[in-house]
Write a structure and sequence with these properties.
Shape: globular
Number of strands: 0
Strand content: under 5%
Structural class: mainly alpha
Number of helices: 28
Order of helices and strands: HHHHHHHHHHHHHHHHHHHHHHHHHHHH
Number of domains: 3
Length: 730
């Protein structure tokens, strides 16, 4: 028989448990996102991305299953009105995505945007004041981990060399990066963590929070991020202005003094950053050059932009030559516009930027409206401080990202999304769903219990599969590194165990088959979120083998591409490996990606890989160069066989590809030398000398004497030119 317990009471209990579960799940995910490292190559980007997708999949499934379970209506007229600007921005971004080129290459950016949107929706429908405060505690726990390891890096660099057990301390020279893996991204994390700690300290002062704030400021200082220093000063000014002008009557007669002090601190920070900037102008010039190119992109498509995630692929056609000197690289290193708002305009146009600014205005108006109500009563002080914290933390991220790209890094974007959602909840109150009717609660029958057992077996099966795959990756990768091995597995097993417990507990609260199916689907998504991480492992293994000239390298790249088939860089790297191995015997190697029908040599395989990469991103300078180099090698191979007609066809293709490469990157010396060598192989010594002279002269649009001198004084170019003149009698 059905239980007699009223549904309203039972649903309220389950909603409370589910909301708390989501809070813990997202909080622990935040700790992992901040501290996780992939010790095989001591990188943290892909493992953080994996944790992010797993976290969003689980949290969204918990909330969605709860909605299905309680059979409530999520959207009311009030919630739709409050969410209208967000829905408008969401629909515009998603719909416009499909009206621009490079859809497959940009697909990852759309998936990330959908994930951030799902995270935002989950939080606004699940959090309240208490859960917001609890989530901030998890952030502070993460901040302790990050700040302490950052302090260890400071000691390692300046006082106690060797104290850092990870052998990557000098990766960014004198700048620290902690577990965040990049100085600017670390600065961003410390910025919003600092204001979370400051708000918590004012609500309940403690020595531990004071120490944490000191450590966070120390970390920010040693990142040497001028933008972060300015953002910290601006954030303190914003926080102080609101606090002293809104929070207490005791500041009423001294507000002018406090506001003057705040202004003086901000002015001092600007001057100090300016002095430091004058000593390191390259980062400023880098941003100015990037912004000028971004402005040219905007001029081409000002209204609607070039599509979500398109900047990194289209910017290469606008990239100024100076950037190649500053980066010291000849690839597509620059992936963002060094300004969040400029990049929004490039990708979404003025229309998209306007919608985004509408969101910020909407949140700001809601904040000040709610703050005035809370500050009218001293009993609401803690709630007001919580509101101020959730307003300042995202605000300081946006301020920093006026000169940075950290908002696109997954850990920053995760906390930015959660804080924006929590601010929405605090501004407008928790979004209430419609109440279910007073009906009897369905009982768990035998069928449900059988399905629950199947679900439990399915979850444990996925854990076992992931464990097997992690063992496959970690065991050979961490050979002779026992400490890394145990460290790695400890955190994986703890995370996997908690995930299994959370899913099984949530499933046990269910009464309906549809809810179990939603959770099962989320478990599949969590498994799939590990595929890019596995792909990165195989790519790193392939690169290591290629560096040792091991012929097995291409098979690892093929494994990586099976897991991540839309990665232009993987196709390009695998093509380079094939080209360098240069086995010209026709064979069929399915474990390297050969189709079942036909026989191929390494030049065939390289050509196929480069063309796939070029189909995804046609404006990549290095793909054009590598393709030109491959055609050149194929021409020489044909000439050695005596097939001069085929050789000339490949020579023509090589010249076309190399010239396209120079249009995108006019400072790459190897492209000039390749063209010179092609001319030499045709006994055209004047043309060969002309190509080298073009490099020595440098691009016409470059005026910096240091960059011009790099060409004029290049000994390799001068020797090459002398050899050509001597051989041709010039």
């Amino acid at each position: 028989m059905a239980k007699k317990k009223p549904l309203l009471k039972a649903e309220a209990e389950r909603e409370s448990v589910c909301g708390d579960l989501i809070t813990r799940w997202l909080g622990l995910a935040g700790v992992l996102l901040s501290s996780a490292l992939f010790l095989f190559n001591q990188d943290s980007a892909q493992v953080k991305i994996t944790v992010f997708y797993a976290a969003v999949s689980g949290a969204f499934a918990f909330w969605l299953s709860d909605i299905f379970e309680r059979r409530v209506k999520v959207f009311s007229s009030r919630s739709l009105a409050l969410l209208f600007p967000f829905a408008l921005y969401f629909l515009y971004t998603v719909i416009s995505f499909f009206f621009h080129p490079y859809i497959l290459a940009r697909l990852g950016s759309l998936i990330r945007f959908l994930a951030y949107s799902a995270l935002f929706v989950t939080v606004i429908f699940s959090f309240n004041n208490r859960r917001t405060a609890e989530f901030i505690k998890y952030l502070l726990a993460a901040a302790w981990i990050v700040a302490v390891y950052g302090a260890v890096q400071i000691l390692d660099k300046y006082l106690l060399p060797g104290i850092d057990v990870f052998k990557w301390t000098d990766f960014f020279h004198e700048r620290i990066f902690s577990t965040i893996a990049n100085p600017n991204f670390l600065a961003d994390f410390c910025l919003f963590s600092f204001f979370a700690a400051l708000g918590s300290f004012l609500a309940k002062p403690s020595k531990s929070l004071a120490v944490l704030m000191i450590l966070l400021i120390l970390n920010i200082a040693f990142t040497l991020s001028k933008g972060a220093w300015l953002a910290l000063a601006a954030g303190l000014a914003l926080f102080g202005f609101i606090y002293f002008n809104f929070f207490s009557e005791k500041y009423k007669y001294h507000r002018l003094k406090y506001n003057l002090i705040i202004s003086a601190v901000l002015l001092f920070a600007v001057l100090a950053a300016g002095v430091f900037t004058a000593k390191r102008m390259q980062s400023v010039n880098f941003r100015l050059s990037t912004w000028r190119s971004a402005a040219e992109m905007i001029e081409v498509s000002p209204a609607f932009g070039t599509g979500k995630g398109s900047f990194r692929y289209i910017y290469t056609a606008y990239k100024r030559p100076e950037i190649f000197y500053m980066e010291g690289l000849h690839n597509g290193e620059t992936q963002h516009a060094e300004n969040y708002f400029i990049e929004q305009t490039c990708e979404l146009g003025i229309a998209g930027l306007g919608l985004f600014l509408l969101l910020l205005i909407w949140q700001t108006l809601g904040f000040f409206g709610r703050l005035k109500k809370l500050c009218s009563s001293p009993q609401n002080r803690k709630d007001a401080l919580l509101l101020l914290t959730c307003f300042t933390a995202p605000a300081v991220i946006y301020l920093h990202n006026l000169v940075d790209v950290s908002a696109y890094f997954v850990s920053t974007a995760y906390f930015l999304t959660v804080f924006n959602a929590m601010l929405f909840v605090l501004n407008f109150g928790p979004i209430e769903t419609s109440k279910p009717q007073e009906v009897q609660e369905p009982a768990r029958g035998k069928l449900f219990k059988f399905l629950y057992i199947l679900f439990a077996a399915f979850v444990l099966f996925i854990i076992c599969v992931l464990s097997r795959e992690f063992y496959e990756m970690s065991s050979p990768a961490l050979k002779d590194k026992a400490l890394y091995f145990y460290f790695y597995w400890f955190f994986f097993l703890i995370s996997a165990g908690y995930s299994a417990w959370a899913f099984l507990r949530r499933a046990w609260l269910c009464r309906r088959t549809a809810s179990l199916l939603i959770l099962a689907l989320a478990a599949v998504f969590i498994y799939l979120s590990f595929q890019p991480f596995r792909s990165d492992f195989y790519a790193a293994a392939g690169a290591g083998l290629a560096g040792r000239n091991n012929p097995a390298a291409p098979s690892y790249y093929y494994k990586a591409l099976k897991l991540n088939p839309f990665s232009p860089s993987l196709y390009q790297f695998s093509g380079i490996v094939f080209q360098n191995r240069a086995d010209l015997a026709k064979k069929n190697r399915p474990y390297e990606g050969d189709e079942p029908e036909g026989f191929f040599n390494d030049y065939d395989r390289a050509l196929k890989a480069y063309k796939k990469s070029l189909a995804l991103i046609p404006n990549d300078t290095m793909i054009h160069y590598n393709l030109g180099a491959l055609y050149h090698d194929m021409a020489k191979a044909s000439a050695r066989r005596g097939n001069m007609k085929e050789a000339q066809e490949y020579y023509n293709l090589a010249e076309a590809s190399l010239k396209k490469s120079l249009l995108l990157d006019p400072v790459y010396d190897n492209a000039y030398y390749r063209l010179a060598n092609i001319a030499l192989e045709h006994n055209d010594y004047r043309l060969a000398a002309n190509w080298v002279n073009l490099y020595i002269q440098g691009p016409e649009e470059v005026s910096n004497p240091l960059y011009i001198a790099k060409h004029r004084n290049d000994p390799k170019a001068q020797n090459h030119l002398r050899g050509i003149k001597a051989a041709g009698g010039l």
